[in-house]
Specification:
Blueprint: H1 24-69, H2 75-88, E1 92-99, E2 102-109, E3 116-122
Antiparallel strand pairs: 1-2, 2-3
Helix pairs in contact: 1-2
């Protein structure tokens, strides 16, 4: 009886070829996270700029109203009142002028590249400003009635 021994010498040798895509998902994930962090930072910076702009606009509007309300105290007194109002709003008054009953102020808010400067005017409506609802003239004739 013959004993057969399996042939061991016929193995094929395949050297391991490195997989070129191995680990690329990690690199792509890190790149995507870095891009998202940059985009998020830009959105936050733009939001900060918008908040500074709105704060400056609100402070300038209220300071102009305060100065126009106290115009009878003179320019210095009205601008001192506008300065107090602007400071209470978290803004800084840059310029203030009062001519008659009309005030013109400039306020700034924010720091660095996000600083915003806004100008506001307040005072009585001028003669060229139309009224919101036109008043009927008292001497206007009534329109003729039409018969059906």
């Amino acid at each position: 009886m013959r004993c057969r021994i399996p042939a061991l010498g016929r193995r094929r040798f395949h050297p391991r070829v490195p997989d070129s895509d191995r680990g690329s998902a990690t690199v792509w994930s890190l790149g995507a996270m870095a891009v998202m962090c940059v985009v998020f930072g830009i959105v936050l910076a733009l939001g900060q700029a918008v908040v500074a702009r709105h704060r400056a606009a609100g402070g300038a509007d209220l300071a102009a109203l305060a100065a126009a309300d106290h115009w009878a105290e003179g320019g210095a007194g009205a601008c001192a009142r506008a300065e107090r109002v602007a400071r209470a709003q978290g803004t800084r008054l840059v310029r203030c002028t009062v001519v008659g009953e009309t005030s013109d102020v400039t306020a700034t808010a924010g720091l660095g590249p996000f600083a915003a400067e806004v100008r506001a005017r307040a005072g009585p409506a001028g003669p060229g400003v139309p009224s919101p609802v036109p008043a009927p003239s008292p001497a206007a004739p009534a329109p003729p009635a039409t018969a059906p």
